[in-house]
Design goal:
This protein has one domain (3-151): Glutathione S-transferase Yfyf (Class Pi), Chain A, domain 2 (Up-down Bundle), CATH 1.20.1050. Helix 2 runs antiparallel to helix 3, helix 4 (82-91) packs across helix 6 (112-122) and helix 5 packs across helix 8. It is an all-alpha fold. The chain has helices at residues 3-15, 22-40, 43-68, 82-91, 94-101, 112-122, 125-130, 134-151.
């Protein structure tokens, strides 16, 4: 498990939703692991990792729907919570992910709650203020992808 995954799990289990189902939490852990495999793998291995990520997103979204119980979003318009921050850091640059990796990680039809949540957070003033430019994110993702592929040869 990566350091980011371990830190995310610790923070979520310590401060976020002690009542969240273990299935949802496990899905989130596996989601972070799967995302790493999607970026660092190729071909059939990447396709398998992507299928796992889509499945984890589905389970995670189901858990969040259960937790939210009809409420619109975590973002209350004033401040971002811990999970908001983890989600926007992970999925906020979804357009850059699409450009570099060649597929839609978040899809409004497949994951309407998560997509609308991330889209709302991307419009939050604090996120807009600290969000790096799209071209810089694409450049960083291309670098990560190329160096991880170079290490695997």
């Amino acid at each position: 498990m990566s350091l980011f995954s371990r830190l995310s799990v610790f923070l979520i289990t310590k401060w976020f939703l002690p009542s969240t189902s273990s299935t949802c939490l496990l899905s989130l852990i596996q989601l972070f692991e799967g995302l790493s495999r999607v970026v660092t793998s190729r071909g059939e291995a990447q396709e398998k990792a992507l299928e796992e990520v889509f499945e984890r997103l589905k389970v995670f979204e189901g858990g969040m729907k259960e937790y939210l119980q009809g409420r619109a979003s975590f973002t209350n318009g004033e401040s971002l919570g811990l999970l908001d921050i983890l989600m926007v850091v992970t999925f906020g640059p979804y357009k850059a992910h699409e450009e570099v990796l060649g597929f839609k990680m978040l899809d409004p039809e497949r994951n309407p709650l998560l997509f609308s949540w991330v889209a709302a957070m991307n419009e939050h003033p604090v996120v807009k203020e600290v969000d790096p430019p799209h071209d810089k994110l694409v450049e960083l993702l291309q670098f990560i992808k190329s160096t991880s592929h170079a290490r695997s040869h």
